Amino acid sequence: MSRYTPAEVLPHAAPMILLDEIIEFDEQNLTAALTVPCDHFFNDAALNGDVPAYVAIEYMAQAVAALSGCRAHVRGEAPKIGFLLGTRAFESNVASFKPGTHLTVKCSEVIQGDNGMGVFETTVTGRHSDGSEIVLSARINGFQPPNPEGFLAA
Questions:
Q1: Of the candidates 84, 75, 28, the residue with the CA atom closest to the CA atom of residue 56
Q2: CA distance 123 to 76
Q3: For 81-98, what is each residue's pLDDT tens digit?
Q4: How many CB atoms lie under 10 A from the CB of residue 140?
Q5: How far apart are CA 53 and CA 45, in angstroms?
Q6: How far apart are CA 46 and CA 88, in angstroms?
Q7: pLDDT at residue 32 above 90?
Q8: For 49-79, what is each residue's pLDDT tens digit?
């Protein structure tokens, strides 16, 4: 089990912290978990209260940010903001997630440049209450500028 919580390693505030738990991490990988909420603004009335599968991109991006935040804490630094630049090869076998569904989110660093650009392989997995498998995957492209405040001021 990780010694950090999502609130400690993500540069987010409620209600945008979507991960419930950091399960484990090392220098290049992170595993997190969440339970799909029943009362979040991502719950879609048009989907009978389900959360659309595309929200998994944010789950994946938060796993990447959490990995960066865990690394920062290990170095004695505060987490820095980063930017989701895009995703490639997003695949999903579901259209939405039912509230109460437990999901596991994993990310693995593929490459991290000195310029702050990074590429990560990510997955979201779980099971619906009927036992059917949930599998989503994507390659996440992100950017964490060395000086976020200066970058935003420019």
A1: 84
A2: 28
A3: 999 999 999 999 999 999
A4: 23
A5: 14
A6: 27
A7: yes
A8: 999 999 999 999 999 999 999 999 999 999 9
Residue with tokens 């505060």: 78
> What residue ranges in the chain does DSSP mark as E strands?
21-25, 29-35, 51-52, 83-92, 96-97, 102-112, 117-127, 133-143
Q: How far is CA 99 from the centre of its chain?
A: 18
Measured in residues, the chain has a length of 154
Name 120's bridge partners.
Answer: 109, 140
Average pLDDT over residues 101-124: 97
Q: Where are the domains of the chain?
A: 6-153
Give the class (CATH, top level) of 6-153. alpha beta
Distance CA(30)–CA(109), nearest Å, equals: 9
C-alpha 3/C-alpha 103 separation (Å) is 20
Phi and psi torsions of 8, nearest 5°: -80, -30
Q: 3-class DSSP state for residue 47?
A: helix
